[in-house]
Amino acid sequence: MTNDNAIFNAAIKMANQAIELDRNKQFDAAADKYLSASETLYDFAKFCKNSKLKALAIDKAKQYFKRAELLTNMSKKKIKVPSGGKGPSSKKRTKDERDENKTDDEEQEEITDEEKELRKVIDGTIITERPKETWDDVAGMEIPKQAIREAVVLPMAHPELFTGARKPWRGILLFGPPGCGKTLLAKAAANECGVKFFAADSASLVSKWLGESEKLLKTLFKVARLDAPSLIFMDEIDSIAGKRGSGNEGGGERRLKTQFLQEMQGVKSESDKLVTVMAATNLPWQIDSAVLRRFEKKIYVGLPSIEGREKIFELCTKGVEKDDTVDFKALAAATEGYSGSDISTICREVVMLPVRELDVSGRLTDGDDTINVRPIRQEDFLNVMKFIKPVVSKEEIKRFEEWRDEYGG
Question: What single string gives the DSSP state of each residue in 319-370?
């Protein structure tokens, strides 16, 4: 218990330091101290057996986090006001003060030398090139495609239509079973918009160096604001935004999640900088509720329809000779419950069969220059489908649909 008290006292000491920095208008440093205190208190609460002390720790952690979030937003907007105070009215400001504020506004998005170094890391680990995928590459999924057009493509292509109460979505969550095209949809949307595209995943954001992950995430969002309009796509968002209080969560993960929440709040508050955050997950029920609230628009990307499956068969066998027996409509009907990834795997196996037959027969090594590859047949697909089965079970689909009914999408 003595050790527990030491942890609690250390957190309170950090909070007092934050308060002192806050009073001295050192908002960035104060925000960092508030966050550290909040994280320490949350960790303390997980192991504290005293219910009253645990409740006190959680209450204070929430207060410190809220203050850190406020100070971070103030810092982004260069609001120079003391804690709890009111800024001077515009009528009483001198010309020098107005000029100073103007300079702050113009330079608020400047990147420091440290952030320039982190941008190099971003350039090396986060995809920033415009994707080549188009809507034509997305088979079926008409409902998700239309929802993404309304949420992402139209606001960026026609910003004049989204004014006043008609505001564009800033946070969009794609959820559904694995292999159903969530990443493909995001890439096609970015291509359609013609905006700067940042693709990140947990592996590129989580760093072994303490504190670097938060800086990398902060720089990613800052660069996205500089390059606005832009689209940030984060795959497997559940891996960095899991529910707080889970047994596997460490201090680093909590700090990264806190930083992400702050950046998402900043994206929503800056109406003049059109930065859209799109995330994908196969485990929406594992996402922390605070993170989930930041994603205002939720889009369910489920298994392809029969028309979608037919189109996937066509796309995945494009350029390969087929005989007259191949019937994509019949294959689509026979693959109910298959994901787009499952069908792609079937097609890859089928188109290799003629080549495999030539190799096994020795035709590819006998020096014969006249090699004829037979066309693929309907029976090839049927034979392959005997041992390639759907990856996603009916029980999993039911769980996704129940989550969709509860949270929307």
Answer: TS-B-TT--HHHHHHHTTT--HHHHHHHHHHHHHHHHHHHHHHTTTTS--S-
- Res. 102: pLDDT tops 50: no
- State the pLDDT at residue 329: 95
Give 36's contacts (C-beta < 8 A, 6+ positions apart). 14
Exposed/middle/buried for residue 65 (C-beta within 10 Å: 0-12, 13-18, 19+): buried
Mean per-residue pLDDT of the chain: 79
The CATH topology of domain 109-300 is Rossmann fold (3.40.50)
* Reported pTM: 0.68
Query: How far is 142 from 185, CA to CA, in rounded Å?
Result: 11
Look-up of token digits 């994901």: 339
* Domain residue ranges in the chain: 2-77, 109-300, 306-391
Give the strand pairing for 275-281 and 230-235.
parallel
Helix count (H) and strand count (E) of the chain? 17, 5
Question: Which amino acid makes up residue 224?
Answer: A
CATH-assigned architecture of domain 2-77: Up-down Bundle (1.20)
Topology classification of domain 306-391: Helicase, Ruva Protein; domain 3 (1.10.8)
pLDDT digit string, tens, across residues 17-33? 888 888 887 888 888 88
Spatial separation of the C-alpha atoms in residues 39 and 211, rounded to whole Å: 13
Q: Is the peptide bond before 229 cis (omega within 30 degrees of 0)?
A: yes
